[in-house]
Amino acid sequence: MDNRSNIWRGVDTIKPRFVDLSDRVWAMPEVCYTEARSSAEHLAELRHQGFRITEQVAGIPTAVMGEWGEGGPVIAFLGEYDALPGLSQEAGVAEPRPLEAGGHGHGCGHNLLGSAALLAATAVKDWLAEHKAPGRVRYYGCPAEEGGAAKAFMVRDGAFDDADIAITWHPSSFWEVVVTPSLANTRADFIFTGRTSHAAASPHLGRSALDAVELMNVGVNYMREHMPSDARVHYALLDTGGIAPNVVQAHARVRYSIRDRDLPGMNELVERVHKIAQGAALMTETKVEMKIISAVSNLLPNTPLEAALHRIMEELGPPHFDDTDKDFAAKIRSTLTDKDIASVYHSIGMEPTDRPLADFIVPLNAKRNPQIGSTDVGDVSWVVPTVQVHAPTVAIGTPFHTWQVVAQGKSPHAHKAMVQAAKAMAGLGVRALTEPDLIAAAKADLNKRTTRTPYVSPLPDSVAPPLDMSLT
Ligand SMILES: Nc1ccc(C(=O)N[C@@H](CCC(=O)O)C(=O)O)cc1
Predict the structure, then answer these.
(1) Pocket residues: Cβ below 6 A from ligand 1
(2) Which keywords fit this entry according to its UniProt record (predicted)?
(3) How confident is residue 3, by pLDDT bands cut at 50, 70 and 90?
(4) What is the ipTM of this complex?
């Protein structure tokens, strides 16, 4: 208790630098693996705070790591700072207003995510220093969560081998421990090559790569009926072969995201999608190459860490929002549909309320109906006991990957939520440092879950971090 209120005061003392960091990163939105400025900002703060620095973790230019302390357990805090394409948006307004046409934006709140994780790591460092306690605290600045799977590459490279527990968080509508699993996910490009020709004078001599992509997508859409209900398959067209209808398209490329509850299920689906692509190539007399871009594992829960974190979050309580916070959140709320709002309440098994911002903790055993995405935190959770906080940075119901998230990304209510997340994370870090039984129980839980199905990286050996994935 004493340790905890002490660490919470520590977070409050140092928070202004990290709120500023979050706002600066918000203003320089950089997508998957292009986070040169954002990672430099995190690196500069790590240096300022006196952490020992590792740059280019796993050979990734925008992955950084800072460590402080000696001996004892290793507590890892995971941060992110990548943005999303096409979500440029002014802050503090409740209407879509891009700052830059076609520009990027922090539509998943990773400006807050990375800064609060670094805030928690720094507060734990200060606590270790003050108590002259053994233990090492690390901050991992992880790029490209939005599809680049940097953490999966960092895990494969051994970056987490000697970490004892990992703690992170994600912006959300709610104040809760994350207990929902996430889906294993592979991103693969299917690159078709045909033969160009005059589409009117000699169509019979051309073989269309675009036709192949269209047939492949139709085939996959027929597969949907026959896949597990939790599986997800979606695609984006990266290359349609050109802008001229009168030139038979000799090249085309489609990027697929293929998800399922676990790796065996996902791998089976990847194989089926690959077969459909081969079928489309056969039908069109084109060639197809499948190129895996990145892949992540499903998330493993960790019961002892979840229980310990929940107790801390209960004690801490949700952030204290004032009337100005609630007024702005209410304006954002008015841009949402009733269905948006009902849908997030449904995910925690609650009936909708009129609250603009969450002022309650979601019970650990709520009857959830989870909306399931994917995250590369999944891979960390297979090798290190891992737990995550959800803190209410957005008006309840705000869907992620939208302008509304970007618009709220620098608001006082988001700042309060990021600080509260940092307090919960730092509180758990100190608890793990002072109660070794917790780490032992967390490790035993992970061992139990992985004895029969040990971790296998979802990344084929030949696949390197797709540093140019955003430039294609
Ligand atoms: N608490 C969250 C964690 C992840 C995401 C998310 O959107 N992740 C991407 C990343 C996918 C991936 O890593 O494969 C996705 O699901 O499409 C959203 C909220």
Answers:
(1) 108, 145-147, 149, 170, 185, 296, 373-376, 400
(2) Hydrolase
(3) low
(4) 0.93
